[in-house]
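Subject: for your reference before the review

Hello V.,

The reviewers asked for a structural picture of the protein, and I figured it would be easier to keep everything in one thread rather than splitting it across files. Below is the amino acid sequence we used in the manuscript, unchanged from the supplementary table.
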Amino acid sequence: MPTIRLCLSGVFALFLYACGGAADAPATTDGAAPDDERIDLVVRGDYVVTMDAARTILRDGAVAIDDGDIIAVGPAADVVAAHPAREVLDGKRRVVMPGLINGHSHAAMTLLRGVADDLALMDWLNNYIFPAEVQFVDPEFVRVGTELACWEMIRGGTTSFVDMYYYPDTIAEVVERCGLRAKISATVIDQRSPDAEGADDSLDKGVGFVERWLGRHPRITPIFGPHANYTLNAEQLAATRAAANELGIGVSIHLSESPYEVQYAQDTYGTTSIEMLESIGFFDGPTIAAHVVWPTDDEIPVLATRNVGVIHNPTSNMKIASGIAPVAKMLAAGVRLGLGTDGAASNNDLDLWEEMRLAAFLAKVDSMDPEILPAIAVLSMATDGGARAVGLDDVAGSLEAGKRADLIQVAFDDVHHVPTYDVISHLVYVTDEQDVDTVIVDGEILMRERRLTTIDTERVRAEATALAASIRDALNERNANREGE
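And here is what came back from the structure prediction:
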């Protein structure tokens, strides 16, 4: 994807606006309009990074919001004059941009952060994480862990996420309360798990979850989460896809993640994971594929043709030594690419700003080409490109009239933003989660001047700390018993 260089002068911003870079605004009205004629909110910024198709950047811009919709984007003076609002958020030293989209997470695993580190994937899963989940994970664990994750994601500017974990009804209830947008995967796995006894049981329970939540809340989309090709056989994977198609929903799966999975597929099916899934029609419906570290050159066009949304998880891939995904090749082939954090047990945080930087740096050092994966391409993976990858591009990912108002203000007043020559460069290579000032989803302010409005953070902190103490005691006892054997 080529870098697009934009002049950010006020004159050029006005030119972009006049040429269709932002929605047309109605005629200017008197700023003293009665309250019932005012829109809900105007959000201003020294810069508005729209991430629309033209990559429009406005200097001294604003976004007008009413009833959860973006109704206008343009120069601040025009938007404020045309759309008297009940509230106007000041934009001094602020960048307004789409909220970030986390395409792959296991939110409640925040409560297992640091439980098992510095291990290979299958050792980490089979000997630490799967046993810990069976022992500790219940609806209360999932509630507290998901609240903790939502707190962390909101704090870092994430407005939408795709989750895969157990007790999905509990996850959905937390998301509904906290205000984020989510696709929630009911995990399907052929082993005893916290909420099921095996593949058939988990799929049956997943169907019940989907039927309860499909169309129930506009911010919540239920989907299936078949875990992987090494925890489900071909027949079970095909049955999960068939159930998803019957219900009209998508699936999210770990795919081509590690050398172990590559070898497992070869030993079991005589082919690769992607070829096996293609042969059973698994991609015949909306598919989100997490990791995709080891696709062959022949498989990358399959992913593009099948519109598979590939989610790159650079930190997790590096930490577990899964490998370096061929992101630049996939983008060049037209694959839909997004970014994810994976769970906090393998990352160990939910910071998409870090994922952006690492995605860019990994691609550059892997190819020994500093021009590979420029800043604008990586920012797209976290916003509009990520929205396409997970199937949310009709409502989120860019700031355009008609989309839902999922956006953030990033503060550029800390020392690392002084001076600012290129706003895109700063967003990708400089910004961190501590710079996020305000978070809005569906037109509702979830964080205002770094203070969360929908989560009682002190309660969540206390509950998470108490649960962690009991988990720590149980793990210490188990480890002592192992040493005594």
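For the response letter, the relevant points are probably these. The radius of gyration is 22 Å. The chain is about 40% helix and 20% strand.

Happy to draft the paragraph if you're swamped.

O.
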